[in-house]
Write a structure and sequence with these properties.
Bound molecules: guanosine-5'-diphosphate
Distance between the termini: 20 Å
Structural class: alpha/beta
Oligomer: single chain
Strand content: 15-25%
Number of helices: 18
């Protein structure tokens, strides 16, 4: 039972047009009536309406700020408790003073994410939806925003519940048969239903798992490794891609340079360059490519951009590394095409050597081929379509891990069924699968884990 009242400044620190202090809990209404002097005498404050007036220090009657206040009575609020929002002037002092007055009335400072945590604890949203809230706030691309929004509206949660329902029905059949062991026909029917249900649950779990890679890419961006021998033009390419959008990027307030420095917007999807140190580093031994380092970069990448210089023959190292890259979407970029009068024959030779990887001739300095590169990336990583699909998607590592454990339990269950194990033994696997799924929506999650998830939120959310 939550019985205290929390408050926090919900807007980011610094100067702005307005700043909001949010309050939630049983003392909310009393705090509003004590601290807010309504412009017009007020018999009863209507819920979900915005009122104009002043925030007043009850100690001396001094007006602290001119403000708008809204009181939202439970249960139709963010937290399902009484909530008030004081819209103050967006500066450090008015907000700090307003918060201080609220705390003096008996509220306590909210922990990071505590408003959303209350929404979860009070059953307004489940854990996957709560995580989507932070996904919305942190989204750095349109695609990331869309997948978070879909999760926020409960699409993923709905799918998870559906699978759990299937498995709960299986559990009911198991229990019926365990309760009536003397009935052979009940037993046979139950076994049949258990198999059908477990297979359906497994199939649906696998379908969700299949969306995980794409979901992560949409949310976090395409992790891209730009690899190639020194001086082929890797940093020139990175800089050219960054330059194109720098104008847009630096205009977004609150975005830190170091995050965006290596993140390129590609038709609404972020492309994140991994191992930029490897690109920017100047090497003493110019001929060495750093095979080990390239392999490491390939390992963590979703996409490989392998660069060559058209005036140099592909080396043994080039071909070795490309062999490693074959399992992932890879593009061989042949740069400096401006240095050769006729490139066709050379490009054909390279194509033959690196087949079946696609080869793209470009000139970074003359800005040739870069638009084609972007198109090719989208078609390789997303088969041309970057939009988030209408169906549910898994975007978080935590959800993916839970789905994997659920899948394993169902695989174990089906194997045990084939081996003719007793039903009460199968029930152990079934419970494990149900619990793993419940972790995603928060039904079977421990208080510690939930608290850990909310602690990564911002203050005031
Ligand atoms: P990196 O070591 O692979 O990162 O290569 P850099 O980007 O530092 O480029 C090495 C040299 O190649 C620089 O002098 C670039 O100006 C030059 N360079 C890069 N791209 C091109 C290109 O398309 N054409 C020509 N002619 N030179 C280029």
């Amino acid at each position: 039972m939550i019985d205290d009242t929390i408050a926090a400044i919900s807007t980011p620190p610094g100067e702005g047009g307005i700043g909001i202090v949010r309050v939630s809990g049983p003392l909310t209404q009393q705090i509003v009536t004590t601290l807010f002097s309504f412009a017009q005498p007020m018999e009863r404050i209507s819920s979900h309406r915005l009122y104009y007036g002043k925030i007043v220090d009850p100690a001396d009657g001094h007006a602290v700020d001119e403000a708008l206040v809204s009181l939202m009575r439970a249960p139709h609020t963010y937290t399902r408790e009484d909530v008030a929002e004081f819209n103050c002037h967006g500066g450090i002092m008015p907000l700090a003073k307003t918060l201080e007055l609220i705390l003096a009335q008996g509220a306590r400072l909210a922990e990071p994410g505590e408003f959303t945590q209350r929404a979860f604890l009070n059953g307004r949203i489940d854990l996957a939806q709560a995580e989507a809230v932070i996904g919305m706030i942190r989204a750095r691309s349109e695609a990331a925003m869309h997948v978070s929004m879909s999760q926020l509206t409960g699409r993923l949660s709905g799918e998870i519940r559906q699978i759990r329902r299937t498995l709960l029905a299986v559990l009911a059949h198991m229990e019926a048969s365990i309760d009536f062991p003397e009935h052979q026909d009940v037993e046979e029917f139950a076994l049949d239903e258990v198999r059908k249900g477990a297979e359906k649950g497994l199939n649906d779990t696998e379908q969700l798992l299949e969306t995980a890679d794409r979901g992560r890419i949409l949310r976090e961006g395409i992790r891209t490794a730009i690899i190639g021998r020194p001086n082929v033009g890797k940093s020139s390419l990175l800089n050219a891609m960054l330059r194109e959008q720098r104008a847009i990027v630096t205009d977004i307030p609150g975005t830190t340079r170091d995050v965006l420095e290596e993140s390129i917007n590609l038709g609404g999807v972020a492309l994140t360059i991994v191992d930029t140190a490897g690109i920017r580093e100047t090497m003493d031994e110019v001929e060495k490519i750093g095979v080990a380092r390239s392999r490491a970069a390939i390992g963590e990448a979703d996409l490989i951009l392998y660069m060559m210089d058209i005036t140099q023959k592909p080396s043994r190292d080039d071909l070795d590394i490309l062999r490693d890259a074959k399992d992932k979407p890879s593009i061989v970029i042949v740069n400096k095409t401006d240095l050769l009068a006729d490139i066709d024959e050379t490009v054909k030779k390279i194509e033959k050597k690196v087949s079946p990887l696609p080869v793209l001739p470009v000139s970074v300095t003359e800005n040739r081929g870069l638009a084609e590169l972007e198109k090719l990336i989208i078609s390789l990583v997303f088969q041309g379509d970057v939009r988030a699909p209408q169906s549910a998607m898994v975007t978080s590592a935590r959800h993916k891990d839970a789905l994997r454990r659920s899948r394993q339990s169902l695989v174990d269950l089906l194997a045990a069924l084939d081996a003719g194990y007793a039903l009460d033994l199968l029930a152990i696997d079934l419970h494990a699968a149900l619990d793993a799924l419940g972790e995603i929506t928060g039904e079977t999650v421990g208080a510690d884990l939930a608290a850990e998830i909310f602690s990564t939120f911002c203050i005031g959310k």
